[in-house]
Specification:
Elements: H1 3-7, E1 15-21, H2 25-34, E2 41-44, E3 61-62, H3 73-92, E4 96-97, E5 101-105, H4 108-123, E6 130-133, H5 134-140, E7 150-154, E8 158-160, H6 162-175, E9 179-181, E10 186-190, E11 198-202, E12 205-214, H7 220-226, E13 235-244, E14 255-258, E15 268-271, E16 277-280, E17 284-285, H8 296-309, E18 318-328, E19 335-339, E20 344-348, H9 354-371, H10 402-407, E21 414-416, E22 421-422, H11 423-430, H12 439-446, H13 459-473
Parallel strand pairs: 1-2, 1-12, 2-9, 5-14, 12-20
Antiparallel strand pairs: 3-8, 4-8, 5-7, 6-7, 10-11, 11-12, 13-16, 13-17, 13-18, 15-16, 19-20, 21-22
The structure holds flavin-adenine dinucleotide (FAD).
The site of flavin-adenine dinucleotide has 40 residues, from α2, β18 and α9.
Length: about 475
């Protein structure tokens, strides 16, 4: 498949052994795992890029699972997913930093809840939480507002790059031979009868599949309905966040958590892997599954929370705000069901922890599919995992590497000055196995335009380079050598 067929024109394949619907972090992880076996696999995504739904707009924490509900599937998969992703990140260069977290008690009631939370963590298999007094809390987070009574430390909570994670999974799936079908919305399903294939009617034509995995996130209940089920309803739960300027970064060097409530994990303050500080998220049930706009009410709520938690933070500049939609359901756990007769698996209701759990969800999915009769013969050889470009602050970026610049001066030529993104990185992203489809996709691959000027200074230059790259993907200049066509 070339990059053009990835996004445009008729589908490059008529039938696959397994179709995975949804190219978010969960679907990409599943496609990656399946493509290690002698199977034809297609990752079918409605949008023009992978990781362009909920997977791009979250709090980006690699959770230990200390606060999950013990005994749930979510608890098990978050714990396992955390281990798997931490290891995979090291192999592939996904930016990750083990900052640790401190959960802060502000009232006597919250203070009294800490031993219970430590016991719950142990029940979830996480034994390293420690209850600390107020003095220790302020030693760890000096900028905290006055009034903290104590805390619980969680030394292994980490921050991670959610964008590189999904891209790494999809890139590896592709290198193992999977089809990546972007701009391909599943609009209708003819479930199988007997041994016949499932027929997926998509916006780019018909695709037949022996087995189907539904990882459609906010749309997973709709796809489940097309298979004739009514097991859960997704209610988008909006989470809004503020991103503070890099000058605020020295103020917080670990994740600062509230005591969780029945509504979720609550509003936190966290460093980001890109060197900023974030405050959020809110939690508000909505009707519209596509509305990721931010709101005046959300801003007011976050400002009030921020003022109570860390007033000094509010004196820093906010460089961006965004919102993501959790795929919440009426149930308290992931919604995973396998129908052996339909050769169909749904991975739904993966709401607040899917970035962490994705690799374990994929592992679990393979187990269920194998038990139901999907033949899993491991491929004799597999390509090495991809080495992803580093867009995090934990390791040297290209502009800091004299060796790289000496080899290729494009890594010494800045295009986006706020984020220090170089010509070489933009060129590489445009020629990568899954090139960006738009400016937002280029931002997710390089950090271009996500700095304090938000593209005011370099926007035109970055856009010019992107347009040239997209034109090459369309083959408009007929220059096949530079099209970056892979596979
Ligand atoms: C505010 C917020 C904060 C969060 N913080 C964290 C965190 O700190 N740590 C953590 O681990 N998790 C966190 N999460 C949760 C995490 O982001 C999600 O669990 C995860 O991204 C879900 O991935 P997914 O692949 O299931 O869904 P998505 O990323 O939404 O992917 C589903 C894909 O399916 C596609 N699709 C839908 N319908 C169709 C169709 N008919 N045909 C083809 N394609 C279709 C969509 O376009 C989409 O790309 C947070 C979520 C939010 C909203």
């Amino acid at each position: 498949m070339n990059t053009r067929q990835m996004r445009y024109g008729p589908l490059p394949v008529e039938r696959v052994d397994v179709a995975v619907i949804g190219g978010g972090v969960v679907g990409a992880a599943v496609a990656r795992a399946l493509s290690a076996y002698e199977l034809s696999v297609a990752l079918v995504e409605a949008r023009a890029d992978v990781g362009d739904g909920t997977s791009k707009a979250n709090t980006a924490i690699l959770h230990t699972g200390f606060d999950a509900k013990p005994g749930t599937l979510e608890s098990r998969l978050v714990r396992r997913g955390c281990e798997l992703l931490a290891d995979y990140a090291t192999k592939t260069g996904i930016p990750v930093e083990r900052t640790g977290a401190v959960l802060v008690a502000w009232t006597e009631e919250e203070l009294a809840a800490l031993p219970g939370l430590a016991a719950k963590a142990a029940e979830n298999g996480y034994e390293r939480c420690e209850i600390v007094d107020a003095e220790e809390v302020y030693r760890q987070v000096p900028a905290l507002a006055p009034g903290a009574l104590g805390g619980l430390t969680v030394p292994d909570e980490s921050i991670i790059c959610p964008w590189t994670t999904t891209l790494a999974f999809a890139t590896e799936a592709l290198s193992r031979g999977a089809y990546l079908l972007l701009n391909t919305r599943v609009e209708g399903v003819e479930p199988p009868s007997g041994t016949a294939d499932t027929v997926l009617r998509t916006s780019r034509g018909t695709l037949r599949a022996g087995w189907v995995v539904n990882a459609a996130g906010l749309g997973s209940d709709v796809i489940d309905g097309l298979f004739g089920h009514k097991r859960f309803t997704v209610t988008p739960r909006r989470g809004e966040l503020f991103v503070f300027d890099k000058l605020a970064r020295p103020m917080v060097n670990r994740i600062v958590l509230p005591v969780p409530s029945s509504r979720g994990k609550g509003v936190l303050v966290s460093p980001t892997i890109y060197g900023n500080i974030m405050l959020g998220p809110t939690a508000e049930d909505r009707d519209d599954r596509t509305d990721t706009s931010t709101s005046e009410d959300g801003f007011a709520f976050l400002l009030e929370k921020g003022r109570k938690l860390m007033p000094a933070l509010l004196e820093e500049e906010v460089t961006a705000s965004y919102a993501g939609l959790r795929a919440a359901t009426e149930h308290g756990d992931y919604q995973v069901f396998l129908d052996a007769g339909q050769r169909y698996l749904v991975l739904g209701g993966i709401r607040s922890t899917g970035l962490t759990s994705a690799m374990a969800v994929a592992e679990h999915a393979l187990g269920l599919l194998g038990e139901a009769g999907l033949r899993l013969d491991a491929k004799a050889t597999l390509p090495d995992p991809p080495r992803m470009p580093n867009i995090g602050e934990a390791f040297p970026r290209p502009y800091e590497r004299a060796d790289l610049i000496a080899e290729d001066p494009a890594y010494g030529t800045a295009v986006c000055f706020c984020e220090r993104v170089t010509e070489g990185e933009i060129r590489d992203a445009l020629a990568s196995p899954i090139p960006p489809a738009d400016i937002d996709g280029l931002r997710r691959r390089t950090r271009a335009l996500m700095g304090r000027c938000q593209g005011f200074f370099c926007g035109a230059e970055v856009e010019k380079r992107l347009c040239a790259g997209v034109a090459r993907e369309h083959g408009e200049n007929g220059d096949t050598e530079k099209t970056g066509e892979a596979q």
